[in-house]
Sequence to fold (256 residues):
Amino acid sequence: MASLNLNAVFPIGKNKLSSNKLTSIEDKVLTIQARDDEKLRNELIGDYQPFIKKVTSKVCSQYIDRTMDEFSVGLFAFNEAIDQYQEGQGSRFLSFADMVIRRRVIDYIRKEVRQNRLIFLQPDEEDEEGRLEESYAEQKAAMDHFEDQIQVENRVYEIEEYQKLLKTFGLNFKVLSKHCPKHVDARENAKEIARLLAENEELAAFLKEKKQLPIKDLLNMVSCSRKTIERNRKYIIAVSLIYLGDFQALKSYIQP
Fold:
């Protein structure tokens, strides 16, 4: 994963609900959403506490038990994932829940780091040898390093999830590196088309469902030709998926 160079790619159901038997976790999630079934929701959360604990522990790089605040954050995140999951969005529920849990736990850790800066990183009066000043600097460096590590881990995770999503569209980084527009203007134009697509609910839904660009509709929104859109089709899809997947760490590769 460390050898992956993203700059080479981005240079700077109804039938399920009617079933008498719920056979998958996706079935259960959709049933909870449709029927507001709190009993089934609580059962699902209870059954998947080991999963929640595993994901949370991995983010925190330490064992997390049920008494810790981080585990509570993970529980709330899993519940949030149940409410937000959409069928056909390109990932299984557990993959989606994994992403939501990671993001919420990382947000919690960052909040704790900021609070600790305010509480612990205020230097008091120094002794004659300046020891408190040194302690302040060491603590600040340690917290900065910890936050950097969290950001790195989050970026690696997003890359892994993005690769899975690309695969559902028949794409990968090798293919994208070959189809990346060579000229800066062409790349920026493709990125703008992708942004417009992602911000339009109907076009985004078409892309997710059909796994192809709604070229006819896009031509009504942009000034470029059909040939231009078709030539950059794979790149436009790839950038659109970053927006639609809300990959915050990867957006730096597509922003102007």
Q: What stands out?
A: The chain is about 70% helix and 0% strand. Confidence is low (pLDDT under 50) at residues 12-21, 118-136. The first helix runs from residue 14 to 17.
